[in-house]
Every structure is written in structure tokens, then in C-alpha cells.
Design brief:
The complex is a heterodimer of chains A (324) and B (293). Chain A has 324 residues and is mostly helical. Chain A folds into two domains: 73 residues, no CATH class; 221 residues, MetI-like fold (Orthogonal Bundle), CATH 1.10.3720. Chain A is flat and about 80 Å long. Chain B is 74% helix and 0% strand. In chain B, helix 2 packs across helix 4 and helix 12 crosses helix 13. The longest helix of chain B has 37 residues. Chain B starts with a helix and ends in an 8-residue tail after the last helix. The chains are: A mainly alpha (324), B mainly alpha (293).
């Protein structure tokens, strides 16, 4: 088991290097970092430009350029952003913290509701509840996050205040303008709508996973054994049914991280929420290579990490899987 | 048999009817659209008129009929969806079948690449690759500039084939151990013959399902790109569903609900219908499914 995990993680490092190399090439070709720099800093001196090229590894050769970028990256000698020449790390750190907060809130709410709904649907396949859950899940999948976001914004920003004379849920930012310091109630109010938007997607996907996974389990022999032992229905469902049904769901959950990050990016932009999504799109729009690369490295690393977790967790949770 | 089972899926039948109706409205757009794509409904002041007899679904910022523009926009979006779905499915079938049938190094590499792309946040990958392709001159010479329809179709197909390849590969892996493939091989059929004559026709059910989901994927991909301003610019006031949904952003400040509601509704209805049809197709073509489940 341990050896399997170790071998898997050993593979992750060359993969990370290879993928970041590809991302480096794609961004260099796509955003043209030198031209964006000249555009934002038209009066930069020659030595400044040379320094910028040096720090970002923008030599003429892609391979040596990548390695000089990598050297600066791992020694934390990060270049400053093109626009406004800001430090990258503090900004990135805040963006990740904000995104993580939203992502964790939405995932917790979404997974909890989704799994519960899925269990209820699987109890009577083909029944009224099952059909209702299935249809709702389809509607949820078919509504892209930007559409639910816009419609919710329209409802709460325009119509709620018109009908009831107050703003229940603000539709942008983390705090109202001018707010200083930490305020839990305000933060929750601001996060409510983005959380709902991301959670809708998660609920729709997970209720279906859970339903089909639990249906498979409920039809298996050990369920009949548990029943013939005289265990209570609830105990059978929870101890033998749901626990086993969760195995594939957890694996899929770990692989789904990319989809959740994608949903966050869209949602954050619409709600003007200062997370990685806003960070990415504004940096991308400016062709801001120094801002983009660290974010991409973190995205790639987290995708690989969660892939690894999926494999390992599957092996741990399911005793039937043997690893050499 | 499969058709009977498909027909017993009530929601899918309703969805097919709705979709057929929509397609008919699009094909007959000279008859069904009430105004030209750039035509104002009346002399100014004509901007942001609420829905009325003059303009059934209201007018936009410069007085154009939203209903007519929705028809033109849906036409463009469906075109993008269908074209890139067909390309995705074709490429996905070839790659998936070859990877599954040959196995080995080729299979490993292809599946690793697909895994990685599928795990990556879609919008990030889409935007980065879009710009990269846009900077390659010989490529834009072939598939057009970044804002052209051809380029968008190419870009969405580039991402679309991976999901299909995975499905086809899974099918082929299951099929290739069966006796009739062995029989074909024993009688000296070549690899490409077996793929073309046996493996693909026997996987036609899952391929059809993949096709429907590819259409939805491409339509919503175009809409996502357009929403963030990286979509196609069809030119001369022409529009797409994604561009119309993108205009909805402004409605939140102004409060003109029809600008936001109707384009969103059309997009949701289309993807919902295609999703339902795909699900019914899966049930109908999956031999392991019994009617009770």
C-alpha cells in the first residue's frame, strides 16, 4: 500500500514538470509576455526589460527559458506583475484563500445535500421521489453556472429590494465597500449566492452518482445477508449500504476538483468575488505572464494531487482491490 | 427494439418534440423571424422596450427585436454545436478505437493526456489553448482567426474528442475479447477492417449518446467563451446564443429582466432537451438495462 502510494507520487513530479512546461509554452505563445510588458510599460528602460526577461525565463529558446523560469520559481525569486508591478504572492495567496473558502462552503453544502437526495432516490427506484430527483438533477446539470448566477443576481439585486425594500443577499464582493476588518455575518451574506450557484452543480452531479452507486450496492448479496441476520433496516442501509456506496463516489469526488474549480472561476467573476477566478481572468486579459504562471502551477499541482488521492483512497477504502 | 424503448421514455419524447420545433423555427427563419438581425422594431425611442405585440420578447439596447435575434443566435449556436460534435465524435471514435484495440504505449499516452485535460478546469484550458492556437500563423490560416466561427468549432472539437475517445475505448476493450472479433481476426481481417466493420458498428449506441452530450458540451462551451468575451464575432451584427446570454450581464444593473431571462431560458431548454434525449438513448441502447430500472 505504502509502496503503491510512493510510486504514484514519484510519478507525479515528472508529470508536474512536463505539464508546467507545456503550460509555459502555451502561455508564452498565447499571451506574448514581452509585448504585454511593453504595452503596460511603454517607457521601460532597456535594463528593466532585460531584467524582466531574465526573471521570467523569456529567452529565445523555450527549453532553457523554462528552466531559468523554474529556477527562479522554486527559489521564490518571483517576477513582479506586469500591470502595476505588484508582488505576486500576496495577491495569489488572498485569491486562493477566498476561493478555498467559497469552494469548501459550496462543496460541503453540495455534497451533503446531493448525497442525501441520492440516498432517498435509490430507496425506491422508479418511484415518484426517484423520478423527481432524477428530473431535478437533469435540470441542475443543464443550467450552466453563469445562467443561475445571472438569474439569482437579477432576482436579489433588482427585484428583492424593489419588492421588500431591503437587500437580503448582496450580489458582489466579500464585504460592502468601506468595510474594514472581519465580520462573519456580512461575509456569510455575501457568500450565500455564489455558494448556491456552485452548490447547484455539485448537488446535481452527486445525487446521481450516489443514486446509481447505492443501487448497485443494494442489489448485492451481502445486503441480503445483513437483512437475514435481522439487522434493522436503518442499520443495514447506513452500515452496509451507504458506506460501501460511498467508495466510488469518493473516488469520483477527488477527480472532480477540476470541475469545481472551473465552476468557481465562472461564479467568482459574475459575483465580483476576489478569488482565483477573478485573478485568472484579469491576469489573462492583460497577458500578465508573471501572475498567470504561479496560478497555473498551483492548478496543475492540485489536479495531480487529487488524482493521486483518488487512486490511493480507492485502494484504501475497497479491500477487494489488491495492489502489487 | 431500441426505438420502442426510446419511445417509452416520455420525457425524451417531449424533449424531441420541443427540439424539433426549435430546429424547424431556425430552419424556417425567413418565415419565423419577424425582423432582420440588425433591424430596429420602430423609430427611436426603441431601446429596452418591454415585451409587447410589437416585439414579443422585448427589444435590446439599440431597439432590435429580441425574439428574432434569438432565432438567428440559436441558429449559429446549433451550427457550432453540431459541427464540433460531429468532428469530436469522428476523431474520438478513431483515436478511442485504435487506442483500445492496439493497447500498449499508444493507449497509455492517449489516456494519460485525456485524463489530464478532463481533470483541468475547462475554462482555463479553453482560454489558454485558444490564445496559443490563435498565435500560430499557419493554423489560423487554415481554421480562421480566433474570433471566426471556424476557429471556435476547431477549438471546441479539440477539447471534445477526448470524452468520446474514452467511451469508445472502453467499448472496444470489452468487445475485442469476444468470439466474433477473434473469428474475424482468424479469417485474416486487417486491423482497420475489424475496427470499421465490427468494433464501431457494435458500439453505435454509446457513440450516439456521446454525440448528444458533445452537442451540449459544444453549445455551452461556445456560450461560456462568449460570456467572457472570448467567443466568436460572427460579424455584421450577427449573434449567437452565448453572445445574447453575455448581454444578460448588463440586465442586472438595469433591471430589464427580459434581456436576461429569455436567452438564458432558450439555452437551458436546449441543453436540457438534448441531455434528456441522450439519457433515453443510453437506456434504450444499453442491453443490460431492464425496463424496471
Amino acid at each position: 500500500m505504502f509502496r503503491f502510494a510512493l510510486r504514484r507520487s514519484a510519478w507525479a513530479i515528472p508529470t508536474l514538470l512536463l505539464v508546467t512546461f507545456l503550460v509555459y509554452i502555451a502561455l508564452r505563445m498565447g499571451t506574448d509576455p514581452l509585448a504585454s510588458y511593453m504595452r503596460s510599460n511603454p517607457r521601460a528602460t532597456r535594463s528593466k526589460i532585460a531584467q524582466y526577461k531574465e526573471l521570467n525565463g523569456l529567452g529565445s529558446n523555450y527549453v532553457t527559458g523554462y528552466f531559468s523560469w523554474l529556477k527562479n520559481f522554486v527559489t521564490f525569486n518571483w517576477p513582479k506583475s506586469i500591470k502595476g508591478s505588484r508582488e505576486v504572492w500576496p495577491e495569489l495567496k488572498d485569491a486562493i484563500a477566498n476561493s478555498a473558502r467559497l469552494g469548501i462552503a459550496a462543496t460541503t453544502v453540495g455534497v451533503f445535500i446531493g448525497l442525501t437526495i441520492g440516498i432517498f432516490a435509490a430507496l425506491r427506484p422508479g418511484g415518484k421521489r426517484d423520478v423527481a430527483v432524477n428530473t431535478a438533477a437533469f435540470v441542475g446539470i443543464s443550467i450552466p453556472p453563469y445562467i443561475s448566477a445571472i438569474l439569482l443576481q437579477l432576482l436579489f439585486a433588482v427585484y428583492w429590494s424593489k419588492w421588500f425594500g431591503n437587500t437580503l443577499f448582496p450580489t458582489s464582493g466579500v464585504y460592502p465597500p468601506g468595510q474594514d476588518g472581519f465580520d462573519l455575518v456580512l461575509m456569510i451574506k455575501h457568500m450565500a449566492l455564489p455558494t448556491v450557484v456552485v452548490a447547484i452543480q455539485i448537488i446535481a452531479v452527486y445525487s446521481r452518482y450516489m443514486r446509481s452507486s447505492l443501487l448497485d450496492v443494494l442489489n448485492s448479496d451481502y445486503m441480503r445477508t445483513a437483512r437475514s441476520k435481522g439487522l434493522s433496516e436503518f442499520r443495514i442501509l447506513m452500515r452496509h449500504g451507504v458506506r460501501n456506496a460511498l467508495i466510488p463516489v469518493i473516488t469520483i469526488a477527488a477527480l472532480d476538483i477540476g470541475a469545481i474549480v472551473g465552476g468557481l472561476i465562472i461564479t467568482e467573476n459574475i459575483f465580483d468575488y476576489p478569488g482565483t477566478g477573478k485573478y485568472f481572468l484579469s491576469a489573462f486579459g492583460n497577458g500578465d505572464f508573471p501572475l498567470l504562471m504561479p496560478l497555473m502551477v498551483i492548478i496543475v499541482a492540485s489536479v495531480l494531487l487529487f488524482n493521486l488521492l483518488a487512486d490511493v483512497s480507492y485502494a484504501i477504502l475497497d479491500p477487494r482491490i489488491r495492489l502489487d | 427494439m431500441a426505438w420502442k424503448r426510446f419511445a417509452s421514455h416520455k420525457a425524451a419524447l417531449v424533449c424531441s418534440a420541443i427540439l424539433g420545433f426549435l430546429v424547424l423555427a431556425i430552419v424556417l427563419s425567413p418565415l419565423t423571424a419577424r425582423y432582420g438581425v440588425n433591424e430596429s422594431v420602430k423609430a427611436p425611442p426603441n431601446s429596452y422596450l418591454p415585451p409587447s405585440k410589437l416585439a414579443w420578447l422585448g427589444t435590446d439596447d439599440i431597439g432590435r427585436d429580441l425574439y428574432s435575434r434569438l432565432i438567428y443566435g440559436t441558429r449559429v449556436s446549433l451550427l457550432i454545436g453540431l459541427f464540433s460534435a460531429f468532428i469530436s465524435v469522428f476523431v474520438g471514435c478513431v483515436v478511442g478505437a485504435v487506442a483500445g484495440f492496439r493497447g500498449g504505449r499508444f493507449d497509455d499516452v492517449i489516456m494519460r493526456v485525456t485524463d489530464l485535460f478532463l481533470a483541468f478546469p475547462f475554462l482555463v484550458a479553453l482560454l489558454v489553448v485558444r490564445n496559443m492556437f490563435g498565435s500560430i500563423e499557419w493554423l489560423t490560416f487554415i481554421v480562421g482567426e480566433v474570433s471566426s466561427l471556424r476557429f471556435i468549432i476547431f477549438l471546441l472539437s479539440f477539447f471534445g474528442w477526448m470524452g468520446v475517445a474514452r467511451i469508445v475505448r472502453g467499448q472496444v476493450l470489452a468487445l475485442k475479447e469476444r468470439e466474433f472479433i477473434e473469428a474475424a481476426r482468424a479469417s485474416g481481417a486487417s486491423r482497420s477492417y475489424i475496427i470499421k466493420r465490427h468494433l464501431i458498428p457494435n458500439s453505435i449506441g454509446p457513440i450516439m449518446v456521446a454525440l448528444t452530450f458533445s452537442v451540449v458540451g459544444a453549445i455551452s462551451g461556445e456560450a461560456t467563451l462568449s460570456f467572457f468575451g472570448y467567443g466568436p464575432q460572427p460579424g455584421a451584427g450577427a449573434t449567437s446564443l452565448g453572445l445574447l446570454v453575455g448581454q444578460a450581464k448588463g440586465a442586472v444593473q438595469t433591471g430589464f429582466w427580459w434581456i436576461a431571462l429569455f436567452p438564458c431560458l432558450v439555452l437551458v431548454v436546449i441543453s436540457l432537451c438534448i441531455n434528456f434525449i441522450g439519457d433515453a438513448l443510453r437506456d434504450a441502447t444499453d442491453p443490460r438495462m431492464d425496463a424496471g430500472k
